[in-house]
Design a protein that fits this description.
Strand order of the largest sheet: 3-2-1-4-5-7-6
Helix content: 25-40%
Number of strands: 7
Shape: globular
CATH superfamily: Vaccinia Virus protein VP39
Radius of gyration: 16 Å
Strand content: 25-35%
CATH architecture: 3-Layer(aba) Sandwich
Largest sheet: 7 strands, mixed
Number of helices: 8
CATH topology: Rossmann fold
Order of helices and strands: HHEHEHEEHEHHEHE
Structural class: alpha/beta
Oligomer: single chain
CATH class: Alpha Beta
């Protein structure tokens, strides 16, 4: 059986991983930090190689992932918990101000599991807390959604929003055309500085957009 560790160690070369780190530095400082205060506790679900949680500025950082390599990539101030996303430790209930997920829900086994993860994420949040999701949108990428072997669940903007509402969240922000689909695209120049310029463009002018962004509250 192919493991998460095997998939991700195969997918990205060292140079691609370095480029992704640079992109995350800009993405956090230019966009995501506005949703997160320095005093916040943040939980990164499906943290992977910890590009987001290592970079974002906050008081408490927790990474949840089943990949054992997450511990290798986590910064010293990141607590790593190796567990399935729908089964976080009960000690984390109502501890987070923000829960973050990036390119994660499409890897789950079913839409039932997607909903279970979102319900579990809500249980991690304090009242008034926020969930932030970056997610491939099949309405934008069409058949390219299946370019990655471990993509299993089909999601677009309205389906993610409905799942969030079913889990008890209230939507705040939905940006359909947020970012390009993948850092592996041969059509996109590999200059991380372009990320800052890309985010300044009006949504309807963003070329190659394949990912959407969602923000919702635990009211």
């Amino acid at each position: 059986m192919i493991t998460v560790k095997q998939v991700y160690s195969h997918r990205f070369s060292p140079s691609e991983n370095e480029y992704r780190k640079q992109v995350w530095n800009i993405l956090c400082s230019s966009f995501l930090q506005q949703f997160i205060r320095p005093s916040d506790a943040v939980i990164d679900i499906g943290a992977g190689y910890c590009e987001f949680i290592n970079t974002i500025k906050c008081r408490k950082k927790i990474a949840i992932d089943i990949n054992p390599d997450t511990r290798i990539h986590a910064a010293k101030n990141v607590d790593v918990i190796q567990t399935p996303a729908h089964k976080p430790p009960s000690s984390l209930r109502h501890q987070a101000h923000v829960v973050f997920m990036s390119n994660f829900l499409e890897h789950l086994e079913s839409k039932d599991e997607v909903l279970a993860v979102l319900i579990a994420a809500r249980a991690l949040l304090k009242k008034g807390g926020t969930i932030l999701i970056m997610q491939p949108n099949i309405d934008l990428v069409k058949e390219r959604y299946w370019d990655f072997f471990d993509h299993k669940v089909v999601l677009n903007g309205p389906s993610v929003i409905e799942a969030l509402e079913l889990a008890g969240f209230t939507k705040d922000v939905y940006i359909k055309r947020f970012l390009p689909y993948t850092a592996k695209s041969r059509y996109i120049p590999k200059f991380s500085s372009l990320t800052r310029f890309y985010l300044l463009l009006p949504e309807f002018l963003r070329p190659f957009a394949g990912q959407s962004f969602f923000s919702a509250r635990n009211i």
